[in-house]
Structure formats: structure tokens, C-alpha cells
Specification:
Elements: E1 3-5, H1 10-18, E2 38-44, H2 51-59, E3 67-73, H3 77-86, E4 91-95, H4 96-104, E5 109-117, E6 127-131, E7 147-150, H5 156-167, E8 176-179, H6 185-190, E9 196-200, H7 203-209, E10 213-216, H8 218-222, E11 227-234, H9 235-240, H10 242-261, H11 263-270, H12 278-281, H13 295-307, H14 317-320
Parallel strand pairs: 1-3, 2-3, 2-4, 7-8, 7-9
Antiparallel strand pairs: 4-11, 5-11, 6-9, 6-10
Length: 322
């Protein structure tokens, strides 16, 4: 298991795409077809959501399909997009809003498989709007005028929290969003740097155990059984190496199904790519790991992202989805 930091900037992406950069330049050039192995890099975020990838790697689902998988971490899906589009990584993990923003901006991103979905249970989801235990904020409407932490701007966190605020009778235009890496969110809350934050597992349960609270299950508020994050590739890779994409998506689907069926193993694998201990992850709330897209939820989230002014053009889900 190899972990390297992602450091590609959007400027690199634009330069590469302008020069006609190809995702296939970074792959092994069809090694599997000639009896070899394809070296594949996938960009991830160090949260519970990506546990299936590590389980699949451990179980041999990728190597069984002649894929030598390397994983890299970034702060959020928006930071992974440039890596995939430049060909540095062949696949990436991102929240659905970042994918929609990229697509509406003209970037040829394509979804290859679901990632995680909301549990659909208020107060029992793998993500929530967290506040300190002594915070005066009691509901999402109380977030008005506050500073809210998100891993990256203009993503599913902001769109879903805006909807939570609207449903609670508040005005989301009065929120200020601040980018904070997920591991730093608890400290940012406790020091007053922010008033609330969009916190995912494995950090959420640990913060709640220390006296923190959630004032909204923002992912539950956007849509029923909402798709929250997905795996994606460039359109160029789908055209140049469809066999590799098919093998990756097959391994991914097997990994997601395995994670859904083996929650204890899913929690345990989190300790291998985060600093959390087995005791700390024991109380982690797992997301759903779907193997099919929930198009209805994607349509609803696209409508909300458009309402929030994040999309330059309406999203063409037929082009984005496989």
C-alpha cells in the first residue's frame, strides 16, 4: 500500500488539457492485454468513505484484474480533479457536487462508479454539521452569520448545509464557508476559528464522544438515499483504454459490496490509512456503499447546486453517468 501526497494545481490541469495531454500517457499502455499488469493511481481523501478501495486492495480484487493500485491522498475532490484530468492519476474519488461543477465548467469528467451514500437517518449519518457542546447553535437556522468549515469550497458540504438551513427556516446566503482540512476541524471548532463544520467520519464520532453535537444531518436533508461521492475518470481514458476502465469498475463494485457486507472489516481497515486506533473507529458510523447510482438524488443535488449558483451550465447527467 503506497501513499503519496497530491500536489497538482488547477493551472497544471489547464496547461495539460490545452496541450492535448492524455490520461493514457501515465498508464502502462494496455499491459493487461499483453499479459502484464497495469499501474493505476487513484486519488482519495483520508476519510472512512474510501475504505472499500483499501479493502479491495487487501482482498486482491484489483490485482485479480491485473491492476497494480497506488493510492494518493488529497484534501478534497476538487483537488483530485486536476490530477485525474492531467493523467497523473487514472481514477479519483470526489463528492458529486465537485463533479457537477467540473462538468458544467467544460471539463470532460466521467463517473465510473458510486462511492458512498447517506444512511438516510437523521442524527445517525456518517456526516453532520458539528458544533462544540457549549455552542449556542441549536439548529441549522442558527448558523446564520456564522463561519462554517468545509474541506473544500463549492462542494457537497456547502450545498447540503445550505439546504439544511433553508429547511430550518434560515437564510444560507448569510453563511461564510472556510476551507479546513478534515483532521483539523475538531481543533478549529474548539479554538473558535469556526462556529460549525461539515464533519465526516472518522472524525465525527470521535468529536461527539468528547462532547460535541450535531445540529443537522445535512446529507440526509438533500435527498432520499442520496449519492454523496463517486469515483471518476477522464473521458479520454474511457476512450483510450476502455478495458482498464471496465476492470477497475468491476474491482470497485466488488470492493463496495464487500465493504457493505463486512462492516467490522471496513472499520478495521480505516486504521491502516489514518492515525485512528481500533478503539477510536469502533463507534464510527459507516455510510452506505452502493453499487448503483441513485439518479433521482443526483438530479435533486444538481438542482440545489444550480440554485446556489455553482453551475455555469445545467449538468448533463446523461453525459456524466456511464
Amino acid at each position: 500500500m503506497r501513499l503519496r501526497p497530491l500536489s497538482l494545481a488547477l493551472g497544471v490541469l489547464l496547461a495539460v488539457t490545452a496541450c492535448g495531454g492524455s490520461s493514457s500517457d501515465s498508464s502502462s499502455g494496455g499491459g493487461a492485454e499483453s499479459g502484464g499488469t497495469d499501474a493505476v493511481t487513484v486519488g482519495l481523501i483520508p476519510i472512512v468513505d474510501v475504505a472499500p478501495i483499501f479493502l479491495g486492495q487487501q482482498q486482491g480484487f484489483f490485482s485479480d484484474r491485473n491492476i497494480d493500485l497506488t493510492t494518493e491522498f488529497a484534501q478534497g475532490g476538487a483537488a483530485i480533479v486536476p490530477s485525474v484530468m492531467s493523467g497523473h492519476a487514472q481514477f479519483g474519488f470526489s463528492n458529486v457536487v465537485s463533479m457537477m461543477v467540473a462538468s458544467s465548467s467544460g471539463l470532460p469528467v466521467r463517473l465510473v462508479g458510486p462511492g458512498v451514500g447517506s444512511t438516510g437517518e437523521q442524527g445517525a449519518d456518517f456526516n453532520g454539521v458539528a458544533v462544540p457542546g457549549d455552542s449556542p447553535i441549536r439548529t441549522a437556522a442558527d448558523l446564520e452569520g456564522g463561519r462554517v468549515g468545509v474541506n473544500t469550497l463549492n462542494n457537497i458540504c456547502g450545498v447540503s448545509i445550505n439546504e439544511s438551513v433553508r429547511k430550518a427556516g434560515g437564510d444560507p446566503s448569510r453563511l461564510e464557508y472556510v476551507e479546513i482540512p478534515p483532521p483539523d476541524m475538531p481543533a478549529a471548532l474548539d479554538t473558535g476559528q469556526i462556529d460549525a463544520t461539515c464533519m465526516s467520519e472518522p472524525f465525527l464520532s470521535a468529536y461527539l464522544a468528547k462532547g460535541g453535537r450535531t445540529v443537522a444531518s445535512n446529507y440526509v436533508d438533500v435527498a432520499e438515499d442520496a449519492d454523496i461521492a463517486v469515483y471518476f475518470a477522464s473521458a479520454e481514458l474511457l476512450q483510450s483504454d476502455p478495458d482498464l476502465v471496465q476492470r477497475f469498475t468491476e474491482a470497485l463494485a466488488e470492493s463496495l459490496a464487500y465493504a457493505q457486507e463486512h462492516p467490522d472489516e471496513t472499520r478495521a481497515i480505516v486504521t491502516t490509512y489514518t492515525s485512528l486506533t481500533a478503539e477510536q473507529v469502533a463507534g464510527v458510523t459507516l455510510p452506505r456503499f452502493p453499487t448503483e447510482f441513485n439518479r433521482d438524488s443526483l438530479e435533486r443535488i444538481a438542482d440545489l447546486a444550480e440554485e446556489d449558483g455553482l453551475l455555469k451550465e445545467p449538468v448533463d447527467l446523461d453525459a456524466l453517468l456511464p
